[in-house]
Amino acid sequence: MSRSAPPPLLQPHTDAPVAILTTRAPAVHTEHLLLRPYTPADEEAFVAVLGDPRVTRRMDQGPYSHEAVRALFQRVFTHVYPHNRFDVWAVLYQDHIIGHGEVKPGTDVPGTEPVHALAHSHWGRGLGSELARALCTHAFTPLGLDHIHATVAADNTASLHVLHRIGFVHARDIDEGTTRVLTRTR
């Protein structure tokens, strides 16, 4: 079922220390990916990724309507970038946007959390691990954080596997055990 309210992506936890986050996201290069700030011309690609219910069905309040995803895209330019709230990127593979990445204050757990989404057509290729690693590297250097956390639906075995593979460990469960909280230290 699609929802019309904007999803909680890009909405920081009110108690989180926003001051630790940098200004507008710098470009990040990995072996196969380029993470770069969004431009207004990226809206359709953003909607294609985050408007796909296969991608967002396990995200908070997901899947999202296309209208909610468009509103979310506008928040990048009205609430995030102008106020340097946290880092948000378009994720490109071979010059095409295939995903979304953030390093932001957590919404469910205080602290900083890397968040990523990858187009369904690019699942199972190792790009999710590469993207998650890049977000962690950015959190540790240049942001200088000592630890980060991730919140993942307990039944999202693919994301849990990716996070375990790159060094996250299970810390606890929340929401009556439906959400796993994992942590990683530098």
Low-confidence stretches: 1-8, 11-23
Total beta strand runs: 8
Q: Evaluate the radius of gyration.
A: 15 Å
- Alpha-beta content class: alpha+beta
Order of helices and strands: EEHHHEEEHEHEE
- The number of distinct helices, counting runs of at least 4 residues, comes to 5
Beta-strand content = 25-35%
Instruction: Give the N-terminus to C-terminus distance in angstroms.
Output: 38 Å
From the spread of the alpha carbons, the general shape counts as globular
Main sheet strand line-up: 1-2-3-4-5
Largest sheet: 5 strands, antiparallel
Relative helix content? 25-40%
Q: How much is the average pLDDT?
A: 87
Give a structural overview.
Helices cover 27% and strands 27% of the residues. It contains five helices and eight strands. The strands form two sheets. The protein has a five-stranded antiparallel sheet, with helices on both faces. Strands 6-8-7 form a three-stranded antiparallel sheet, with helices on one face. Helix 1 packs across helix 3. The N terminus is likely disordered.
Short description:
The chain is α+β, with helices and mostly antiparallel strands and 186 residues long.
Notable characteristics:
186 residues; alpha+beta; three-stranded antiparallel beta sheet; globular; disordered N terminus
